[in-house]
Amino acid sequence: xxxxxxxxxxxxxxxxxxxxxxVYPLGIHQAIAEFLGRDAELAVRTATLGQPDNGLPQAVLDxxxxxxxxxxxxxxxxxxxVVERVYQAVLDGMGLIVLHSGHAxxxxxxxxxxxxxxxxxxxxxxxxxxxxxxxxxxxxxxLPQYFEIxxxxxxxxxxxxxxxxxxxxxxxxPSGEVFRSGFTYERGRGKIFYFSPGHETYPxxxxxxxxxxxxxxxRWTARTPNAPRIVYRANTPVLRPHADMGENR
Length: 249
Known about the structure:
7 helices, alpha/beta, 249 residues, disordered C terminus
């Protein structure tokens, strides 16, 4: 069975900014879906903020093994009920890939359990060198020691996130900044990957190395087929010592 992928994009910049529309005329979601769709092992669909249920009703999530999330100017427009629905899907095993400024999205902050929007950023249009600092991780498969992004938005530390389970990519900029640009978490049965390169006014998602990262990430985060569902219950009974442990009753 193919891995079922949903590429979600708020799809606002492309409709309101000519610079963005020139780079991604059909939307960032369509650009990502196009190169992922060339992989015969992936079945790819798209969803956007303006659709009913913000494009993510329960029926869509039930048929999604990996959800890619691109957001920037519309974080607060995502319905809280949709965020909770996505979060529960992750706990149940759906993979989640959060892209670029999705670090400030409601769903990523819920995953982190803390405000994750605090970082330094500059739109200087300089280059980015992305170092692979965990080459053994499956998401880094097929990549060189580092790769260059010709023009990008500068993200730099401090980045207000909990310590990642695995840090895979570290970015460096000619002006001296560094940034934890690719890392993973696991929540419940779900795997999460964050990847920062992907500013909307540059053709970063058309770059072969970036496409390799995302294809690898889809495979790593994908829901495990037939995995048992985790049930979370409130008021779980406290385990008591057995009588033969010497506990008086």
